[in-house]
Amino acid sequence: MEAIISPIVKKIAEYSVAPVVRQFCCLIRYKSNVAHLTNQVQHLCNKRDGVNMEVERARDALMRIDPGVESWLEEVRKIMDEKETYFKEETVAKKATCCNGLFPNLNGRYSLGRKAKKMTLVVDNLLARDLATIAHSAPHPEVGDSSSGRIIDFESRRSTIRNVMEALKGNQISVIVICGMGGIGKTTLVGEVVNKAREERIFDEYTMAVVTETLDLSKIQRDVAEYLGLPLKEEGLEARAGQLRKRLSDTRVLVVLDNVWTSLDLWKIGIPSCPKSCKVLVTSPNQDVFNEEETRKIFHIGVLPESDAWSLFKKVAGGYIESDPELRPIAEQILSKCEGLPVAIWTLGSALRQKNKAIWKNALGLLQKPFRGDIQGMKKNVYQAIRLSYDFLESKEAKSCFFVVLCISKKHLYTCRRFGDTWARARALSRH
């Protein structure tokens, strides 16, 4: 009989006495519970500060913060806010007593002790959370241009793209040069080629570098490596070149070199001569670049034919210029000043869009004035179009924005889309 009753009594005690004891402990130990919570929260605060320091360093290095870390920091913020709200010194003192502090408030003390104990469990869990990985390397940038398509929807450009694509698919050509004067649309065309190559999965990886007139091989190496997500751990040009050559030989890669003014020693940079695995797509104003490469192929890009130039100008400036009998001859004269250069057409069309006839006439007068000056690599009509776009901005803030963006985008000086985007941003700012 005793063997039967004893377990029953133990269970009754477990389910009736134990909860009472726990509640009693919350009442009589409320001060120690609150003090322990405060101590643990301080440890959590220290850990949070350390994590935040690592997060800031990771962000400075353009790394992606681990989602688990961001979630942890948010949980920490919430628990600390709750602790600050519920356990302020004056709040605790007020809840622990009643009748202006003459008598203890048993219910308030029990509530404080119980709340402190529960929050301490949450804090302990946050302290124990493993945050070994604070951040991850950011995904490397992708070569290609989502804004391309502006000036290539013409047969003169489509045929060039088809021919370049054929050269990329073959195994005989290693260097493909897109040649033409500044403002002709070389970089925009290459952007479309890259996008098509990506769609057709011709290459496994794509990388690029913008080449400056003052040649900086180290910068070219860094740019190429960045798009590949390759950390260049070696010191010196030759060591880094070896690292790049190994990486570029492992898979089918397209290397885009934009704005090349003179021939480069590809091997010295780290670009292997291997048409089957690594191809180089170059834009240049100089048709003689890479003459020494036996596997080179060159494509010349000319100005837009008159019909294509008018179609582009009409698309950018607005279709109304064709139907307005007074405006059309003015628009045609302005277009003639662009001499078929896409960058000039796009820039002027954007600047004159939705403008009245007086402004169109004024623009034509300005373009007819003789231009004195020489900017290497830039035709005078391109400069005049850019200058006119700048002059049409209505506020100092917009003009400042235009100037700053052009300075930042100096390496893209010869791409139509950069000027179009720059003008659009500055123009939008001028309306506010």
TrEMBL record:
Q: Which Pfam families match?
A: NB-ARC
Q: InterPro entries this protein is in?
A: Apaf_helical, NB-ARC, P-loop_NTPase, Plant_NBS-LRR
Residue stretches making up the NB-ARC domain: 159-317
The entry's keywords: ATP-binding, Nucleotide-binding, Plant defense
GO biological process: one example: defense response
GO molecular function terms listed in the Swiss-Prot or TrEMBL record: ADP binding; ATP binding
- The name on file for this protein is NB-ARC domain-containing protein
Task: Specify the species.
Answer: Rubus argutus (Southern blackberry)
